[in-house]
Amino acid sequence: MTVRSDGSKPSGPVALSLSGGGMTLPLWFWPSVTVGYLAMLHAAFAAGVLRGTTGGDWLLLAAMFAAISFGCTVGLHRYFSHRSFRTSRPFQFVMALLAGAAFGDPIAFSARHRLHHAESDTEHDVHSPKQGWWHCWFGTLLDYDLAEAEMRTLVPDLLAIPELRLLHRWFFVPGVLTVAGTVWLGGFQAFAIGYCGACLLVVHAGSAVNYFGHIHGSRRYETPDRSTNHPVVALISLGEGWHNNHHYYPAACRAGFQWWEIDILYYEIKLLSWIGVVWDLNEVPERIRKCQAPASASTSAGS
Ligand SMILES: [Zn+2]
Ligand SMILES: [Zn+2]
Predict the structure, then answer these.
(1) C-beta separation of 20 from 105 below 8 A
(2) Helices 106-118 and 162-169: angle between axes, nearest 10 degrees
(3) The pLDDT of residue 143
(4) Beta bridge partner(s), residue 219
(5) How far, in Å, from the CA of 284 to the mean position of ligand 2?
(6) Is the pLDDT at 58 greater than 60, yes or no?
(7) Is residue 75 scored above 90 in pLDDT?
(8) Under a CB-based contact definition with an 8 Å cutoff, are residues 125 and 119 in contact?
């Protein structure tokens, strides 16, 4: 459970006036749905593999992973949370829908993520290895404690956009439609390998950044948190694992600051800028990029 910065904890049923589709639901409702959803992703994917797969199944997984991970990382993280580049309102909505396929909500995600940056590795953080592996990897996904009123103070820029407010209110609709559409078009196997496989990769890569990106690896920059750069995590998260860089200068549209720090998401943003879909990329200032001396030695659990 998230502890508020004033030390208070939420109690009683949460009036999910926006994120519950306008309904007032008991506190346990959405966490229980999320547990069921995560269990379904794992079970369906395992069942799909056991049934036997084809090359087409894995191609579909790759395509769905490319689309959903783009929505969740370039969209939810680098655009909505950090506003590290600009784009048109239609493409902004496309990114929100791609994230919505995996039940990502720009307003809720960005509010929680901005809180993570503001309170990183303190007791008020929404996910930190200090709270234990389970919470950091899974528990934070079940945490619906951030009240709407608090959310409003964290993302006033996003709440000013009507279509994002609508998506926040009905955040489950794009995901339900994606699941239904995948089953309708490709049957169980497309759902199990394509959709569930892609969502599992996105969930676990994100959790790997949240956990290992704050406990294992090297620190180039001195930051108040314990963020680290980890090449393996960076590879599986398409660039997000250069997490110490990101915590030091989160406004940048890239997390890999050096040419050798592979950052697939940055290359995607750059490609889109060349064809005019996105613009005003916030690059890393030279004086920050050239700070190459390690601020401290490698960190590890318990250090
Ligand atoms: Zn972090
Ligand atoms: Zn961030």
Answers:
(1) no
(2) 90
(3) 85
(4) 296
(5) 15
(6) yes
(7) yes
(8) yes
- Which residues, 6+ apart, have CB-to-CB distance to 270 below 8 Å? 281
- Between β-strands 217-219 and 296-299, what pairing exists: parallel, antiparallel or unpaired? antiparallel
Residue 43: phi and psi, rounded to 5, are -65, -45
Measure 91 CA to ligand 1 centroid, in angstroms: 26
pLDDT digits (tens, 9 = 90+) for 103-128: 999 999 999 999 999 999 988 889 99
Cα(207) to ligand 2 centroid in Å equals 13
- Residues surrounding ion ligand 2 at CB below 5 Å: 250
Task: Evaluate whether 252 touches 283 at the Cβ level (below 8 Å).
Answer: yes
* Entry field: residues in the chain: 303
- Please give the DSSP secondary-structure letter assigned to residue 156: H
Residue 110: how many CB atoms within 10 A of its CB? 23
- Residues 128-166: pLDDT tens digits? 999 999 999 998 898 888 888 888 899 999 999 999 999
Phi–psi pair at 85, nearest 5 degrees: -155, 175
**Do the beta carbons of residue 123 and residue 94 sit within 8 Å?**
no
Question: How far apart (Å, rounded) are the C-alpha atoms in residues 191 and 178?
Answer: 9
Residue 214 CA to ligand 2 centre (angstroms): 12
Residue 8 pLDDT class (50, 70, 90 cuts): very low
115 vs 118: CA distance, rounded Å: 5
How far away, in angstroms, is 224 Cα from ligand 1 center?
Answer: 11
Decide if 180 contacts 172 (C-beta within 8 A): no
Mean pLDDT for 49-53 is 95
Residue type at 169 in one-letter notation: R
Q: pTM for this structure?
A: 0.88
